[in-house]
Amino acid sequence: GLEVPESDLLTLSYVLGELPPGSRDAVVAGLAGRTRMLAIVEPGTPDGYARVLRARDQLLALGLRVAAPCPHGGACPVTGDDWCHFAVRLQRTGLHRRLKTGELGFEDEKFSYVVATTEPVQAPGARVLRHPRTRKGLVTLTLCGQDGIAEQNVSKKHGDRYRAARDVDWGDAWD
Predict the structure, then answer these.
(1) Do 93 and 133 share a domain, yes or no?
(2) C-alpha span between 151 and 155 (Å, rounded)
(3) Last residue of a domain, one of 99, 123, 147
(4) Same-domain pairing of 29 and 102
(5) I want to staple 83 with a disulfide (CB 3.0 to 4.6 A). Which of 13, 30, 49, 135 is the partner?
(6) Which tens digits make up the pLDDT trace of 12-33?
(7) In 3D, which of 164, 77, 92, 91 has the Cα closest to residue 129?
(8) Are 116 and 56 in contact (CB under 8 A)?
(9) pTM for the complete prediction?
């Protein structure tokens, strides 16, 4: 087996999909027992999300608390053909562009993740699950919260909350 020293934080990034399916649970359990916080990241695809969701359920069963992205420790409300994922824009070097035969100086990397901890968690009220939709005087947010997935309309009449909604991004916490 793999020897991992006890740590405050362990990351398992783009690894579960490379492991034989039968060994994934043992790796997650083994790492969870060696750290106060475990971050697991997989590609932002339906398969990557399925691996993250299985790890999330396993971590909760082991007594850890979800710190992110979920604002709760209940069952994940993202079901069916949908999957929970986020995106980050990465700058490409010249070498990176040549290797990927890309023309743009950046790429948007989509990922699914879970962060779980043995420590108490102060979770946000909700997490923004999609790019906010903005129209004149109105922002519509798709949120994951304690009660599941909901759409919230924030209009100009909401003042500071509207200004905050205009600045929020996909993946941000929302209270």
Answers:
(1) no
(2) 13
(3) 123
(4) yes
(5) 49
(6) 999 999 999 999 999 999 999 9
(7) 77
(8) yes
(9) 0.90
